């Protein structure tokens, strides 16, 4: 029993040393439906230009 308590205590101490997780999230918003004769442009934020998320979203909007 002492061994189990010692292992759990050690595990608890090690998990307390875990650094915090920092996550950066990019959000893309949908456009309203396009009616006949209208067009749109997809322009990236300079920090997101060339990213996979932007390319995927641009492909979805262009229908490609």
Radius of gyration: 24 Å
Percent helix, as a range, is 40-55%
Structural class: mainly alpha
Largest sheet: none
Separation, N- and C-terminal Cα atoms: 62 Å
Number of helices, counting only DSSP H or I runs of 4 residues or more: 2
Mean pLDDT: 77
Please count the beta strands (DSSP E, at least 2 residues each): 0
Shape: rod-shaped
Segments where pLDDT lies below 50 for 5+ residues?
none
What portion of the residues fall into strands of 2 or more residues?
A: under 5%
H/E series: HH
3D structure, described in words:
Helices cover 41% and strands 0% of the residues. It has 64 residues and is mainly α. The protein is rod-shaped and about 75 Å long. It starts with a helix and ends with a helix.
List keywords for this structure.
single chain, 64 residues, mainly alpha, 2 helices, rod-shaped
Compose a concise summary of this entry:
With about 60 residues, the chain is mostly helical.
List the helices and strands and how they pair.
Layout: H1 2-16, H2 52-62
């Amino acid at each position: 029993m002492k061994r189990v308590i010692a292992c759990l205590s050690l595990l608890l101490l090690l998990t307390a040393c875990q650094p915090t997780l920092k996550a950066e999230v990019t959000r893309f918003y949908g456009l309203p439906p396009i009616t006949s004769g209208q067009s749109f442009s997809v322009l990236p934020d300079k920090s997101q230009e060339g990213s996979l998320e932007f390319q995927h979203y641009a492909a979805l909007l262009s229908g490609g």
